[in-house]
Amino acid sequence: ISIVDPNWLGVVTFQAFIDFMSRETANTDTADQVMASFKILAGDKDYITVYELHHELPPEQAEYCIAQMAPNTGPNSMPGALDYMSFPTVLCGESDL
């Protein structure tokens, strides 16, 4: 409680509560967790398709992923496939890609 009521007044302002909850619920996914999620969405393939992104994600998130993901050039890839394997490091800020 000392975080949201540092003066020990016995009350927590709404703004202090919002600030605290924002910090506590901030996106803490690691690149590995994000990659594991995409692997599930991709049906365990090494790439994901635009269709799969549109089918599984809200439109804004799908479009963001499509715009940010590099084309997949792996041996088992298909035309238009996207590389979700490198995307999590970009998303989580663990890479300069």
TrEMBL record:
Which keywords does UniProt give here?
Actin-binding, Repeat
Name of the featured protein: EF-hand Ca insensitive domain-containing protein
Q: Which residues form the EF-hand Ca insensitive domain?
A: 27-91
Q: Which residues form the signal peptide?
A: none
- InterPro entries reported in the protein's UniProt record: EF-hand-dom_pair (IPR011992), EF-hand_Ca_insen (IPR014837)
A single GO molecular-function term is:
actin binding
Top-level taxon of the source organism: Eukaryota
Q: Which Gene3D superfamilies match?
A: EF-hand (1.10.238.10)
Q: Which Pfam families match?
A: EFhand_Ca_insen
